[in-house]
User: Which sequence fits this backbone?
């Protein structure tokens, strides 16, 4: 089979890496890919957002399957376009992708289906939002309605921060159209967890649990990022919580989508907050998580390709997924200044040394090849994943690999999975 993976981040490198192991795959393309995917696939210089060019490439290359990594092309309707062109594609349609591309749509769906989630109010007028803030107990969570590269969620500790956040989103256009409408939510206290599910419209299969680290600095300080690291399995996930997920969240959300005339086929993952009252859904995502994918896929013993195909064909209920009992720790190496302004083009050294370590896999994100060497090309540059029999051993190995890699301004958190080791 010939497969195209759309996207150029660490998630896409992990997907291509896993699909490359399938005996049914003989050729993989990545569009646009990165310096890491170039080592296992053929990079194609088409942006993930150039839908017509991607469709032309898929037709001209006679692809057997396209796997869409990022949320933007899904929100723009790439699956609808490919299906119309009779091209086989993994991912939800534009209407189904609204569960991620519009936080307001998702919130209204959860309310209608009585899915546990934070109380929230919706605003399209900044003056109304600012007046509402005067009545609140802080902290509160302010969310841009649309997609904002994982950075459209701000925890406001006080009225002044709330007011400046609302102003920057709604009046200054910090996130463009994504911030024209906002949600102001109650702040939920607890611990977060990510669960991925392959959904074929009516049925689903859960993948292994993971925990992400969103804040840029140690101790969960600083602004939200796309994710600074992850580990799997989550140390806060229990059979009771899984029962709640499978009773109060997954069936109602699929039922609610079908009631809206939407059949969701693809990867659905609810971001969950585990509170003293049980699970609450923070948000829904309609694609593989990043960096969770880099932590989860190395633990998957099953062939990924038949699982994606069964999802497309509405037959995921016939599948079982085998998992390695090992644990994984993934550490993201970012450019200095991320998630704000940062420089690119910095040469990266030590990759060969780190790759030679046992049970270490390096997934490239913001990298490219220039003048014969690999250089930085984005905010999140690399994701270093290590496997171990215990969280402590995986963590030690991951940081050993990280210590071998160098580029100017390299920034990473030093406390990824520390809570899972220390209790």
Assistant:
């Amino acid at each position: 089979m010939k497969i195209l993976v759309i996207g150029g981040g660490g998630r896409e490198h992990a997907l291509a890496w896993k699909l490359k192991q399938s005996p049914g795959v003989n050729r993989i393309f990545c569009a646009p890919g990165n310096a890491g995917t170039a080592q296992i696939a053929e990079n194609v210089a088409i942006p993930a957002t150039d839908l017509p060019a991607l469709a032309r490439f898929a037709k001209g290359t006679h692809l057997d399957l396209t796997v869409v990594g990022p949320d933007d092309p899904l929100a723009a309707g790439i699956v609808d376009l490919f299906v119309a062109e009779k091209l086989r594609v993994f991912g939800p349609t534009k209407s189904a992708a609204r569960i991620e591309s519009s936080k307001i749509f998702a919130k209204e769906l959860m309310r209608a289906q009585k899915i546990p989630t934070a109380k929230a109010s919706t605003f399209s007028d900044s003056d109304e939002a600012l007046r509402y803030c005067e009545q609140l107990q802080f902290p509160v969570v302010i969310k841009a309605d649309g997609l904002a590269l994982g950075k459209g969620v701000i925890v406001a500790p006080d009225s002044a921060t709330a007011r400046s956040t609302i102003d920057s989103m709604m009046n200054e256009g910090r996130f463009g159209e994504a911030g024209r409408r906002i949600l102001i939510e109650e702040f939920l206290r607890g611990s977060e967890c990510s669960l991925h599910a392959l959904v074929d419209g009516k049925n689903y299969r859960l993948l292994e649990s993971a925990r992400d680290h969103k804040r840029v600095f140690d101790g969960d300080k600083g602004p939200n990022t796309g994710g600074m690291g992850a580990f799997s399995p989550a140390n806060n996930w229990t059979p009771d919580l899984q029962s709640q997920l499978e009773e109060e969240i997954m069936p109602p959300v699929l039922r609610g989508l079908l009631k809206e005339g939407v059949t969701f086929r693809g990867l659905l993952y609810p971001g969950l907050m585990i509170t003293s009252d049980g699970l609450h859904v923070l948000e829904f995502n309609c694609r593989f998580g990043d960096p969770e994918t880099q932590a989860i896929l190395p633990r998957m013993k099953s062939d990924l390709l038949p699982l994606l195909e069964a999802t497309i064909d509405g037959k995921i209920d016939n599948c079982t997924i085998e998992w390695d009992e090992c644990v994984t720790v993934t550490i993201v190496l970012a450019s200095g200044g991320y998630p704000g302004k940062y420089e690119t083009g910095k040469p990266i050294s030590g990759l060969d040394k780190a790759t030679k370590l046992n049970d270490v896999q390096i997934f490239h994100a913001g990298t490219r090849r220039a003048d014969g060497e690999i250089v930085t090309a984005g905010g999140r540059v690399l994701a270093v994943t290590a496997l171990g029999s215990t969280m402590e051993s995986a963590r030690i190995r991951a940081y050993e690999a990280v210590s071998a890699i160098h580029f100017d301004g390299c920034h990473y958190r030093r406390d990824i999975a520390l809570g899972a080791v220390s209790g």
Notes: The chain is about 30% helix and 25% strand.
